[in-house]
Structure formats: C-alpha cells, structure tokens
C-alpha cells in the first residue's frame, strides 16, 4: 500500500503524534503552521486543520487531497464552492465539545440566576449589600438545536431540577428532555422558556435566525444564552431587546464579529455576561479531537463508514 501523507496544521504532543503513527505506520505526518501549509499541500492526502482557517488558496494546489478533517465542530471557512463540488470527504470534531460547553452554560445560568456579577461589583466597591438571587429549580430551559452539546446541557439541567424542552429536526426519544419540538415550533419553545440556549450550527437557514420578533416571543423574565455562532443572532436586534426589556438578560460566548468591538453597547450592559468564545475550551480538547481523528483514520483505511461526515451542500 502506498504511503499516506498527512498534514496537520497544529502542534501535537509526542503521545498524539505516536498514536497517529501507530494507526498508520507507513504514513508521513507533517506538522506545520497554517502559513506554511502551501509548502506541503501538493503531496497531501489528508489535511487536519481548523474550521475557521481558509483553504481557498490551498485547494487548487492539492491534487492528491482526499479527506479534510476539522479539529473543530464548525467548518464555516472550509465550505468553499470548489470543496463542495469536489469528491473530497469533509469531517469535523462534533461530539467532543459537550462536556466543557455544558459546564460553561450551567455556569452562565447560575451566574445570572444568583446575580453573581452584582455581588462581584459590590465586592470591588467593598460594599456589603444583599442581592435578590433566584433559583433555577423547576425553571424551563429551552435548548435550540438538540445535538451532542445540547444533550450534555439537557443532562445537567435535568439533574439540577429544571424542565427541559428543545428543538430538533428529527424527532427522537431523549431521556433528559421533557418535550421535543420541531424547528418550525421555535416560537413555542421561546415563549415557554426561562433560559433559551442556542446550540445550532451556522447555516444559511440559521443565519440571523434570532431577530427582534424572536426576542419578543420570549418571556420578559427570560435569559438568552448563545454558545453556538454569533451570526445566528442579528446583534442590533439583541441590543434592542435588552435595552427595551423584551428579555431580562443575555450571556454571550460568541458575537457576530469577533473580537467584539470596543464601542459595542453590549460591553456596558449590566444585564449581559460576555465571555470571549471559550465555552468549548478545555485542557483535554486536542486529546479528544485527535482521538476522534484516529478513529476516523482507522475507518478510512478500512473503507468503512466514517464518523461526522459533513453534507457539504447543507453545511453540517
């Protein structure tokens, strides 16, 4: 069997590199920075990269390329027309983000509910002043886009005594969800939820899905949490909803243009919690991503069905 050339646009530990080599002993594995990829792409059979890195200049120079694996769940920048029209397989690392992202969402929910930002502000001012914290027990969480991340959020929410409702394209039996709705029933979920959590992929159908009317569908006492993609939300409408009191507050790990502009009104809003796209971050992230890649590499070598194959026309 001819040797495989695998190009990885990221640093790997010795353990991770050895694991790949042990899976395909005759593979030539090259690690390099994205800016140096043009030096190696011509002979590359498998490219391991990130979904936010452009391949626009690489693809025309990659006649041998057969498979691209994204170390991220998002593949936004990889889905260029030439790739969509090609026979190149595209896979992602969907499924490894659930644990850190679910913990992050629960931290956001508890931070907002227990009014921790107000207490931190009082602490900085050396002010001993009680706040009015709430409980999340028996509250309803609406998970918009129940995938692997949503299930981890649902599991933890259920353990905290919350009622869990969600939207999902395919109706399935979900042991941690009280009721499942179709995407067309989004407004029903919004109107019933105390916490709305967005875990949707970014596609043509979900871009700017959340406009002012959607925020008006929510309870005035509800919080909006986005850990998916910023462009799913029409940001000016979110600002309006927060200013006008259509919703109580928001927790945002993502925004439409990152980093968030210093003149954005979101920075100054006391009912907004902002984190810099860190919900999926974990010291175990790359280890999990490479483990998934190796599992797929084994399937690829044996010509069996691979995991997380992206429908390039749909974008997920």
Could you report the average pLDDT, rounded to the nearest whole number? Answer: 97
Ranges with pLDDT <50 over ≥5 residues?
none
- Estimate what percentage of residues fall within beta strands: 5-15%
Number of domains: 2
- With strands numbered from the N-terminus, the spatial order across the biggest sheet is 8-7-6-9-10-11-12
Q: Biggest sheet, open or closed, and with what strands and sense?
A: 7 strands, parallel
Domain D-isomer specific 2-hydroxyacid dehydrogenase NAD-binding: 106-279
Organism: Selenobaculum gibii
Keywords: NAD, Oxidoreductase
InterPro entries: D-isomer_2_OHA_DH_cat_dom, D-isomer_DH_CS1, D-isomer_DH_NAD-bd, NAD(P)-bd_dom_sf
SSE layout:
Elements: E1 5-8, H1 14-23, E2 28-31, E3 46-49, E4 67-70, H2 81-84, E5 89-91, H3 98-113, H4 116-124, E6 140-144, H5 148-159, E7 163-167, E8 179-181, H6 186-192, E9 195-198, H7 212-217, E10 223-226, H8 235-244, E11 249-252, E12 272-274, H9 285-301
Parallel strand pairs: 1-2, 1-3, 3-4, 4-5, 6-7, 6-9, 7-8, 9-10, 10-11, 11-12
Helix pairs in contact: 1-9, 3-5
InterPro entries: D-isomer_2_OHA_DH_cat_dom, D-isomer_DH_CS1, D-isomer_DH_NAD-bd, NAD(P)-bd_dom_sf
Family: Belongs to the D-isomer specific 2-hydroxyacid dehydrogenase family.
Keywords: NAD, Oxidoreductase
